[in-house]
Amino acid sequence: MKVLVSLYIPQLGIDMLKAHSELDVTVWDKDRLMTHEELLSQAKDYDILLTSSNYVINEEFVQKCPSIKMISTFSVGYDNVNIPLLNKHNIPFGNAPGAMTDATADVAFGLMIAVCRKMFYMYNMIPNDNWNILMPRANLGQEPKGKTLGIFGMGKIGMEMASRCKGAYGMDIYYHNRNRNPEAEKELDAKYVSFDELLKVSDIISAHCALTPETKGIFNKEAFQKMKSSAIFINTARGGVHNETDLIDALNSQEIWGAGLDVTNPEPMKADNPLLFMENVCVLPHIGSATVKARDEMARLAALNIIQFANGEEITNRVLK
Fold first, then answer.
1. 89 vs 83, 85, 204, 219, CA distance in Å?
2. pLDDT score at 31
3. Is 286 assigned a catalytic role?
4. pLDDT tens-digit series, residues 243-269
5. Which of 164, 208, 242, 286 is catalytic?
6. Would you state the CATH architecture of domain 101-283?
7. For position 132, what pLDDT does the model report?
8. 186-202 pLDDT, tens per residue?
9. What is the domain partition of the chain in residue ranges?
10. Which of 185, 267, 279, 300 is catalytic?
11. Direct distance between the N- and C-terminal alpha carbons of the chain, in angstroms, rounded to an integer
12. Fold identical between 2-98+291-310 and 101-283?
């Protein structure tokens, strides 16, 4: 079976695939991402595709690449993929869950501290020879110790973020999820509340949910207006979870105090986006999984999906809906 690896994943995953005698592997090894048009043009000649969340897998893809029998993604998220469509055409799809749990939680935790202390803004003052931090009332931030953390999406990453905040700062944990999480309630003394209550009680809200029709744009004008004026919004989940125009307005009108983003809406963010110039905002370019350990594990899991398919085995991390 011919396999197209549409991005230059860590060598561990490539070696796993090439070690399988039944797989003929081609790797995109250019120093840029393959365009969507290039993907459509090349994938039509392959049986299996290893791709990522950068590419939309929809009706057009299925029609133009009829030889594809299986798809694996170098990612956890799959909101870019039409799963019901793939199921209809009997094309199994597998992802890489759990690989980036610690790495993403670390970024969320780091953003929280960076926003609290206006670190990005203050760093940018240095090249301008501006050391006005010496002024007693200049650029004062917040301290996270003892504050209330609200987790929106208490899955693995949400649990790790809550654990870090509980352990380091003794923060009280509240959460909202599709379903209650008994483990979080037992281990972290987390309190399950409605979404509205989460907005009202939290000093810091950290989003760790999947992007679904229900969560798309859920952090909007109405949501920000319900938050404390001293609240900080953190999003390391998906940019589509928040309405960026509403977030900018909420910050400008001081409806909330600050924001930390590893995902933006749209993505990539334009260089003149107002969020980049606000003293109480920290933005990162979607680096949640960018550690050696996380990326190696993502590559391993993505390759494993393909190997299991080639062996006629059940795909452990198959996504069914």
1. 10, 6, 44, 35
2. 87
3. yes
4. 999 999 999 999 999 999 999 999 999
5. 286
6. 3-Layer(aba) Sandwich (3.40)
7. 65
8. 999 999 999 999 999 99
9. 2-98+291-310, 101-283
10. 267
11. 26
12. yes
Distances (CA, A) of 60 to 3, 38, 178, 196: 20, 13, 32, 39
Work out the number of other CB atoms within 10 angstroms of the CB of residue 192. 17
Closest by CA position to 309, among listed 30, 155, 86: 86
Per the annotation, the verdict on 267 as an active-site residue is yes
Q: Which of 164, 176, 208, 238 is catalytic?
A: 238
Strand partners, 93: 71
**Are residues 281 and 259 in contact, defined by beta-carbon separation less than 8 angstroms?**
yes
Whole-angstrom distance, CA of residue 15 vs CA of residue 103: 24
CATH superfamily of 2-98+291-310: NAD(P)-binding Rossmann-like Domain (3.40.50.720)
Per residue in 148-205, pLDDT (tens digit) is 999 999 999 999 999 999 999 999 999 999 999 999 999 999 999 999 999 999 999 9
Mean pLDDT of 16-37: 94
Measured in whole angstroms, how far is the alpha carbon of residue 279 from the centre of its chain? Answer: 23
- Length of the chain (residues): 321
Q: Stretch 108-112: mean pLDDT, rounded?
A: 99
